[in-house]
Amino acid sequence: MTATASTTYTSAVSDNYSSMGNIGLNYEIPEGLYVVPDHLLDLRPDSDVDHDLLHPRAVTNEKNVWFFWHSGFMKMHPYAQRTVRAYHRRFSKLGWVIRVVDREPGSLMHIGNFLDLHDAETFPDAFRNGTIGGDYALQHYSDLVRWPLLLNYGGVYADVGMVQIGDLDRLWNETIGDPSSPYEVISYGKTLANYFLASNRNNALFARCHRLLLALWADAGGKTSTEGMHASPLLKGVPLMGSDTLTFTENGRVYTSDEVRRMLTDYIIQGQVITMVMGLVDEEDRWDGPKYCREHVYAIDFMVGSQLINEITDWNGPRQFQLMSLSVPKEGEEENVEQKQARDIVEQCLTRSFGFKLATGLILRVSGDTLSSLWRKAIGSDVVPGTYAHWFRHATANWNQKGIPSPLDFEVTEPIKRGPLLREA
After folding, report:
1. CB count, 10 Å around CB of 250?
2. What is the gyration radius of the CA atoms in the chain, in angstroms?
């Protein structure tokens, strides 16, 4: 592993494309990857890419990558902006349009320009009224736009912290985009991670998921947060998220594993909704969730596919930041033990993972700083030329994988529930 340049991090690192693009650094390309030809990349300066993101073409097909940031793309954290730009640079010339919708008044990308804010079958009252509260209100606004966008327009919904590694265009073209393919949904894991969801318009699975989610928000005359949703009779039979060993201490208070699991489940209530619909058999509605998943869901391995750095480092965010901030060896320098560990992370993620999830939110309370939160604090630290972080970022903007991941097999399972979706068990 060699590089011809190395520098020390400063907060003044440029956000221009040169900070992620081809600036002469001799990063090794791991086996199984290739350099995307220049004519298939958008190599213009960041300012030109940003203009396209702020003024996207009209929706004409399902090749859309949807993101949400409440205050708009230009107010996103710089490391997240780089992630979004990388999608545009790699996939826009293949027909994809990258769209960052928001709730910023007067914005061309305001969610109201894409979806009917007055439609009770699209949004709950709290969204329409702007009254969603709680510690994670902004995350829940984001949760409530993803299924309506996919149902109305199709494409991919990704969190702004979801870095794309693999060949999204090829996977789409060989599954959802191929009329002869049985696959209608792409996501991670057998419970379908809500940070990356792909489907065609009017998808049967996501339509039912959205109906159930709206019912949870409408409970008790209308909720303004997801607190307590885990206990809804409509989710009876779906186990809580997390493990019995998950605890944390905050301001001198110890939160038990039961408290943390309820908190986590409410936070990711979409996960409960997806699990219920996948496990539902509703003869009145002619819906067999387990059968649908076996036949139509392309699920990528969750841990290897999108969380590999956490598996390698045992979810240690500060350690990840330390390793990724190291400089790669200069020409003729010997690689030390920590550099070898950093190289292993980069090479494994680039060759084995389809995506790379940068997490914030509730995990910060439970586990402390993550790589994402540290990149957010140390502005520009993810693109210091000559570091392992920059090598990774450069790869995700300029390289591609030669293959696509294999889907997981869904076993034959007993339904979680038999009967109508919105009838209490």
Report:
1. 9
2. 21
Tokens, residue 85: 């730009």
Q: What is the pLDDT of residue 3?
A: 34
Per the CB < 8 A criterion, the answer to whether 84 and 100 are in contact is yes
Binning pLDDT at 50, 70 and 90, where does residue 9 land?
Answer: very low
Residue range 17-54, pLDDT digits in tens:
544 554 446 799 999 999 999 999 999 999 999 999 99
CA distance 174 to 180: 9
DSSP state of 405: P
Q: How many CB atoms lie within 10 A of CB 164?
A: 21
pLDDT in tens, 82-118: 999 999 999 999 999 999 999 999 999 999 999 999 9
Question: What is the Cβ-side half-sphere exposure of residue 36, based on CA atoms within 13 angstroms?
Answer: 27
Is the CB of residue 196 less than 8 Å from the CB of residue 156? Answer: yes
Q: Are 200 and 173 in contact (CB under 8 A)?
A: no
Averaged confidence pLDDT in the chain: 92
pLDDT tens-place string over residues 371-396: 999 999 999 999 999 999 999 999 99
H-run or E-run covering 299: strand 297-300
How many domains does one find in the chain?
A: 1
Kindly state the DSSP code that residue 370 receives in the 8-state scheme. Answer: -
In the chain the first and final C-alpha atoms are separated, in Å, by 58
User: Which segments of 66-181 does DSSP mark as H helices, in order?
Assistant: 78-91, 125-129, 137-153, 168-174
Residue 256 belongs to some domain of the structure: yes
Residue 75: CB atoms within 10 Å? 11
pLDDT per residue over 318-367, tens digit each? 999 999 999 999 988 999 999 999 999 999 999 999 999 999 888 888 88
> How far lies 85's CA from each of 82, 100, 376, in Å?
5, 11, 16
- Residue 18 burial (CB < 10 Å; 0-12/13-18/19+)? middle
306 neighbors 410 (Cβ within 8 angstroms): no
Residue 34 confidence (pLDDT):
97
Query: Has residue 244 been placed in a domain?
Result: yes
What is the full DSSP assignment across 158-221? E-TTEEE-S-HHHHHHHTTT-TT----EEEETTTT-TTEEEE-TT-HHHHHHHHHHHHHHHGGG
Residue 231 lies in a domain: yes
Nearest-5° Cα angle at 210, 410 to 192: 30
Q: Is residue 139 part of a domain?
A: yes
